[in-house]
Every structure is written in C-alpha cells, then in structure tokens.
Amino acid sequence: MKVVQVAIPIPLRKQFNYQVPEELPNILSLKVGMRVLVPFSNKKLVGIVCDLDASTDVDETKLKSIEAILDEFPVLSSHLLVLGVWLADYYLHPLGETLFSMLPAKLRKHEKLTELNQTYLKIAENVERKDALLSLRRAKKQLALFRALFDHSLSLSEAKSEYSTQTVKALEEKKLIEYEERIAPKNEWQHALSIERAFDANVEQAIAISTINKCSTYATFLLEGVTGSGKTEVYLQVIEAVLKKRQQVLILVPEIGLTPQTADRFQRRFGEIVAMMHSGLSDSQRLCVWHQARRGDVGIVIGTRSSVFLPFENLGMIIVDEEHDDSFKQQDGLRYHARDLAVFRAVKLNIPLILGSATPSLESLHNANTQKYHHLTLSNRAGNASLPSQHLLNITGQQLQCGIAQGILDKMAIQLAEGNQVLIFVNRRGFAPSLICHQCGHVETCVGCESPFTMHKIAGNLQCHRCGNQRYIPHKCSQCGNTDLSTEGQGTEQVEGFLSAYFSNYSCVRIDSDSTRSKARLNEILESINNNKHQILIGTQILSKGHHFPNVTLGLVLNLDALLFSEDFRAAEKMGQLITQLSGRAGRANKQGEVWLQTHQPQHPLVQDLVNNGFMSFSRSLLEERRAANLPPFSFQALLRAESQHLDRVLEFLNYAKSMLAQFINAKVIGPLPCVMEKKQGRLRYQLVIQSDHRGYLLSIMQQALIELDNHKLSSRIRWLVDMQPQDFS
Ligand SMILES: Nc1ncnc2c1ncn2[C@@H]1O[C@H](COP(=O)(O)OP(=O)(O)OP(=O)(O)O)[C@@H](O)[C@H]1O
Ligand SMILES: [Zn+2]
What is the CA angle 709-713-719, rounded to 5? Predict the structure, then answer.
C-alpha cells in the first residue's frame, strides 16, 4: 500500500501520513508538491504532498485515505519545496502553514489547478453556414467576424479587440457562435522584447553595470546610490543582458512603491513583457501572474513582498529595490523577510541578486563590509541634478502657526511664487494626535489600548490607531463634563487645512493612508502632482517612498523630534532613512532643492551627523554604535511575545520560557518587558528578546524551547508568537 506524507495548514509542527487508495483516479500522476484533499478531525482539508514514500510505524490499515488529488501538476516545484522547508526551519513556523503562505490565495482553497485556460470563439455546431451568411448580409462587422471564424477559432480577447464586444455579443445572441475553453498557447515573450535605450550610463553607473554583467552565477550586489543617482537605470541595463539570454527577472519593490509609472518605465524600455503583482489585484489576477511566470509567458515580474514565492520557468536575476523598506518583512503569520528569501533563492538557483537603496539597511551594509556582498556605489545624482541641501531649524521658543515656523512659511511663499512645489512631512495622520479637556486635563483614551484617540475631522470621529476603534467626537469631557475641549499637536488634516487657508491661491493635496485607501486613488494623486495640479504636498511616510517629483524644491519635516525618541534600537536608522528618502524627493530635476528639519534638539549628535555628513557617513557611525553595543547585525535576535487579558498568565509563560532559555550559556535573555504598545484591544502585551552571537545557535535553542512551550499548560490559553530577526518591537 502506498503511504504519503502530507503537510496541512494547521498550527501544529508536524506532518501526517495518509494512504493512497488504489482506486483514486490519476493516482499515477501523483507527485510531491501537489495538493490533495484529506480528512482531518471531522473536516476535509487541502494539504500538500511532501513525501511520496513515507515509511510508517503505525498500522497502515488504520491510516486515513486521501480523498482526491487536486492538481494536474505540482503547485510547488522541488526548488520551492526546498525553499519552504528552509523557511519553516528558519522562522520556526509550522511547515503546512508555511507552504500554504507561499501559494496564491486561490490555490490555498479547494480550487482545482489546471493549465492556464483561455476562452475561444468558434462557430456553433449545427449552424447552416449559407443561411447564416444570408442573415448577416446587413451587419458588416458581424459578417466579417463570422467569416474569420470559418478559417480558425479566435481567442475571445483577440475577437473583442479586433471586432468589438458588441459584435461578439450580437453573434452570441443569434446563437451563431459558441465559447470553448482551451489551454492558452505559450506566449513567447522573447518575440515581444524590444530594447529602447534612453541615455548612456555615467561613469559610476557603467562600473556597476559591467561588474554585475560579468557575473552569471550567484553573487549579491549591494547597490548603494544616493537618491536620484540612477539606480533604476542600472537595473534596466543589467536586465537587458539577462533578457537577451532568454531568462526572466524578478523585481521586488515596497508595497507602496509599485506605481504604474514604475511598470511603465520597464515596459517602455523592453516592450510588453512585464507583469505586475501587488495587493490591488484580485485573486484571479494574481493566479494568472503566477501561471504566466511559471509558464515563462512574461520576461519581467515586478511585485511586492509575496512575489518572492512565484514560480519561474527560467529565472536569471532577482532585484530588491529599496531593500531597506520595512514592508519586505511580513508582520503576521509566517514572519519572513523577502530580502532573506531572495538571497536563498539566488543561492539555490545560482543567479545574481541586486539589493538597491539610497539608505541601505545596516544588515546589508554589514554584509558588504564583511565581503559577503559586493559593494557598488553611485555617489552623485544622475544628469544635471544635485542633492538638496539639508538644514536644521531650532524652533525652541519660536511662535509657530500650526506647528510651522514663520521663516518656513516665507520660504514656501517664495518657492510657490516661482512655480515650484513644496513637500511637508507630518508624522501623524488625522487632525490631531489627542483631544484634551481644558478644565481637568483629561485625555480621551481608547479603553482597550489605554492610548489617546486621534481626532479625525474629515471622518468626524475619534480613532484609535492601535486597534481601529472609533467613537463620535464628544461635545464635553467624559470626566468632568466641561465643554472646553482642545486638540494637542498636528496631524496631516490640520496642516492641510491651515496651509489651504494660508496659501489660498495654491492647491494642497494630502497623501496618507486615509486619502489613498485604494491603489488607484494613490496613482491618481501622484499623477496630478506630476501634472502640477497641486503645489503643496502634505503627507506621512508614504511621501518618502521612491516617488519622482521633479518640481519639488522645498521640503519640510514638521517635527523631527517625534522620530528621534523611541525605545526601538533601530529608531535612529529608520529616522535617517526616512529623512534621507524624503529629502531625496526634492531637487530631482534641474532645480536645486532645500530641506528644513524643525527640531528642539539641533545639537543632537546623530542629527548633526546625518545633516552634515549624509546617510553614508551617518550609517557607518550607527554601525559602529551597534558593534559596541553588540546589537544586530553584530548579533542575532529572536522575539517571544505573549498577550492576554490576564497579566499573570503572560508573565508566568514568559518567565517559564526565560528559565528554560537561561540554561543556554551562549545566549542572553532580556525581559519579560512590556511591548511598546503595552495594551492593545484589552490584552496586555509582554516580550522576551533572546540574543546570541551565532545565528545557528539561536535557532537551535529556540527550536528546543518551542517544543517545551508548545506543551506548556498556558500555551493554548494565551496568544503568543516567535519572531526571528524581529524588525518591530511595537
Ligand atoms: N546616465 C544618465 N544620464 C542622464 N540622466 C539619467 C541617467 N541615469 C538616470 N538618469 C535620470 O535621472 C533620474 C533619476 O534616475 P533613477 O530614477 O534611475 O534614480 P534612482 O536612483 O532609482 O532614484 P531613487 O532611488 O531616488 O528613486 C531619472 O529621471 C533618470 O531618467
Ligand atoms: Zn484601541
């Protein structure tokens, strides 16, 4: 009897054996990596076969049987299965859940996997052609389509583009044609490849390009290029060589960075060979890209984090653009970092990988310093543009209007009068970060999170930015009943309102997650900015994400201090990246740019270093600080977080974990300490940080600890999770 091992998407760290009944149809085609339907504790679940020949100790006749084979071919190739097993180990996540996280949503369900189908039109059976031709003699277009179908059937999309949807519909209604599903023919993207070079590379670009082009096996290149230095141009030129070898390219971009402009740029250079993969697509569209990549129907896929799991027919290069971006790290479920996976895939496929950024992560810089990565730099802006100048503005004791100093308002007036755009970064969305009673000082607070509500004027409510809880704006203080309530601090809405009134001849636009709920809306806004419909751009960190705003000449950071003070040891790194990327939006064309940072701490040494010496120098100083403190990337961390309404349970669980981990002498255990958000939705949140100088050691002690923790009596009564190489301690 045949017994196979199946990984099931449940939170258990084990796989299960099933019999394969002889009578199952298509039993001979069963392969590793295919999905099967299996019974599992009174339910039917979809699992993935991960071993075809599972030796088993239990009585085979007692094993349950596979009920159906769902696929015609494996949904996970052997390369991706190896990746999945590595992932599950590396992030200490159950294999079944891991493998399913790698699939497009449609394939996580029962849906059968068949080859990519296409709808075709053909002449309906039993149609008397002569009669039909006669009946169509007055409808020229319909006649033409009908005639064309004499010779050969047409795909529905071809028919619609050539003859219009109405024509197709008309023939359908007359019952003269019918539809047929067929396997889509392979699209030879290589035929659509055309190369339109825009300009010649400058010296630094040329060095980077030729260094990368010389390499056809695995190597990771860290391309550190200041903002606007032409990193994308380097990508374009090295991709050219890969495409000419008939190999495909995967480009990973941050969630918000994937705009139609990005795709356009690649499309214009190489022709219609580009597919995009992002959260704005429907499940069917995502499955279609999955097929296209797998079949080799497209040459380039540009996508966000989860695209790192796409199958490819013949992948020749991976690029991670803005490699420092937080959105590459998944923050729930399987907490993977797409950059780490990109490295793993490149090694296994023996292909080059490029990590590009103006503000590389300290992890990648460290890898470049220790020669694990090749370091390439672009130190100047491309073309005629130069980097903007950065200035600190001490606002201590200054009169501010809506948080803005008069000197800045005057500078704005000058730039606006010259027809330029200005950009203002505000670190908080909404109208104001808190609502306070003028009488008793009470702050309106979300009870579940013990955190101040943010006031949203446009939505007309108070919102908790931790849990999403909403409330009407009260007319009087919930504590003392006084009606004199006032707001404290500024959010994007308030700054927008103030500047619209102050500069009433110009148009303001707000770019934050409230105003850009849909991807289409963000694209619309970006387009109207580039068409100069708006002159004053106000936004949160979305503004810093790789956009090209050639008319921005003045940038303002309203409150630098809010970025400086945080318990997270990466706060300084993130502040430097944000400020540098924001500044990078200014002065990108022929006009010189200028950026002002308002602060009460102008003498802060980190800020001084960043402003006077730039990110390259600043990041090297940070790296030295990390070395001295033995923090990542000089050591490795794991996070164990526990949450419950009962503090005693949380502490008992974490203290148990601590006592267990304390026996391993080469690791340090810090905590239990409250998370930055100590309370969220009524649950108390605490964590342990486990740190070691050796990644392998850390992994193995965490593996041992997990076995004990899974069996702990509180394990199923509280929420808890492990995050390897955590990025976020909130
Ligand atoms: N060799 C070159 N000669 C002239 N112009 C160039 C050259 N390379 C790039 N450019 C232009 O410079 C601008 C910035 O280039 P690009 O967008 O590639 O920079 P980037 O480093 O990717 O930018 P960022 O990281 O800031 O988004 C673009 O308008 C591009 O067309
Ligand atoms: Zn809340």
Answer: 65
Using an 8 Å Cβ cutoff, are 391 and 405 in contact? no
Cβ–ligand 1 contact at 356 (below 6 Å): no
Beta bridge partners of 251: 302, 319
Residue 134: partners with Cβ closer than 8 Å, 6 or more residues away: none
- Indicate the number of domains in the chain: 6
> What pTM was estimated for this model as a whole?
0.90
Which residue's CA lies nearest to atom 25 of ligand 1?
227
Taking only Cα atoms into account, the Rg of the chain, rounded to an integer number of angstroms, comes to: 29
How far apart are the CA of 234 and the centre of ligand 1, in A? 9
332 and 413 part of one domain: no
Q: What is the CATH number of the domain that holds 310?
A: 3.40.50.300
Take atom 5 of ligand 1 and give the residue whose Cα is closest: 383
Mean pLDDT, rounded, for 75-86? 94
Residue 98 — very low, low, confident or very high, per pLDDT cuts 50/70/90? very high
- The answer to whether residues 511 and 368 belong to one domain is no
Q: Are 328 and 337 in contact (CB under 8 A)?
A: yes
Ligand 2 centre to CA of 472 (Å) is 14
User: Distance, CA 383 to ligand 1 centroid (Å)?
Assistant: 7
Query: Is residue 437 part of an annotated ligand binding site?
Result: yes
**Ligand approaching nearest to the C-alpha of 679:** 2
Residue 550 in contact with ligand 1 by CB distance below 6 A: no
Two structure tokens written together for 714: 């509180």
Nearest atom in ligand 1 to 226's CA: 21
The pLDDT score that the predictor gives to residue 674 is 92
HSE at residue 471, side-chain half, CA atoms within 13 A, is: 18
Mean pLDDT for the stretch of residues 349-375? 97
Give the whole-angstrom CA distance, residue 499 versus residue 492. 11
Q: How many CB atoms lie within 10 A of CB 615?
A: 25
User: What whole-number percentage of the chain has pLDDT above 70?
Assistant: 99
pLDDT, tens only, 161-204: 788 888 888 888 888 888 888 777 777 877 777 777 777 899 99
- CB atoms closer than 10 angstroms to residue 462: 23
The pLDDT assigned to 170 comes to 86
* Joined tokens for residue 223: 């391309």
Nearest-angstrom CA–CA distance, 196 and 395? 50
Residue with the two structure tokens 């009134």:
501
CATH number at residue 657: 3.30.70.600
Find out whether 508 is annotated in a ligand binding site.
no
CATH code at 444?
2.20.28
Around ion ligand 2, which residues have CB less than 5 A away? 446, 448-449, 464, 466-467, 469
Q: How high is the mean pLDDT of the chain?
A: 90
**Six token digits for residue 141:** 């277009």
Nearest CA owner, ligand 1 atom 14: 228
Q: Residue 231 Cα, ligand 1 centroid: separation in angstroms?
A: 6
Q: Are residues 424 and 401 in the same domain?
A: yes
Q: Report CA(222)–ligand 1 centroid distance (Å).
A: 17
Q: 381 CA distance to ligand 1 centroid (A)?
A: 7
The DSSP result for 526-555, as a single string, is HHHHHTTS-SEEEESGGGGSS---TTEEEE
Which of 229, 258, 376, 595 is the best mutation target for the ligand 1 pocket, counting ligand atoms within 8 Å of the beta carbon and taking the most?
Answer: 229
Q: Residue 262 — very low, low, confident or very high, per pLDDT cuts 50/70/90?
A: confident
CB atoms within 10 A of CB 233: 24
Closest CA to 244 of 275, 277, 268, 273: 273
Q: State residue 135's pLDDT score.
A: 84
Range of the domain at 405: 389-428+491-626
Tell me if 695 is assigned to some domain. yes
**DSSP per residue over 290-307, as a string?**
HHHHHHT--SEEEE-GGG
